């Protein structure tokens, strides 16, 4: 394995000489999809708990579809399914977008993680103590200010442990990116295995990299929980 690392470590971590590969691509997929998914999920979560039935049902349908179908199938639909439609190929912008495997992968990952995150945040919003809401209303806050100053900050803090699980699962889900010829860690491991026939070493290095990133994310989220959820811990007398 040491010889394999010495020969292919750049491929696994950064670049294969003419393109970014491996860990750098996996980190890029994770950060962009999680970031976009988070930004989209906050307003969708508010819509999900809305008293307007049509709006809530519309968001529910979106989350139901993307949580009820495998990410791998969603990626295939984005990468090969949509591009088979003439309306996509005949438009210059959509043709250029869906011809790129990275674009399709980011689209599938973002929509998938957004669906799960929306339900996580919606559940946290519903669990907001009613006393906090009543106090804010008594203070004269408008609905927008109520969400901005009270409900969302409280809900996002309490959703942090569940959201950390979604981020870890999204890291593991990036392994399907090789389907769209995206050179992530698993794609490099497959290429190294094809070149050396050392399956255990090739995929063992990939497993160690995923393990390292997972433990780093867990450590970061634990620190965040200790800081932002400290008020929920029992206080010693």
Walkthrough of the structure:
The protein is mainly α. 77% of the residues lie in helices and 0% in strands. Helix 2 packs across helix 7 and helix 7 packs across helix 9. The longest helix is centred in the last third of the chain and has 30 residues. It is flat and about 70 Å long. The model has no long low-confidence stretch (mean pLDDT 90).
Strand-helix topology:
Blueprint: H1 2-13, H2 23-48, H3 53-68, H4 71-81, H5 86-89, H6 92-98, H7 101-126, H8 130-138, H9 143-158, H10 160-173, H11 185-196, H12 199-228
Helix pairs in contact: 1-11, 2-3, 2-7, 3-7, 4-7, 7-9, 7-10, 8-9, 10-12, 11-12
Short description:
The chain has 237 residues and is an all-alpha fold. It has helices at residues 2-13, 23-48, 53-68, 71-81, 86-89, 92-98, 101-126, 130-138, 143-158, 160-173, 185-196, 199-228. The protein is built from twelve helices and no strands.
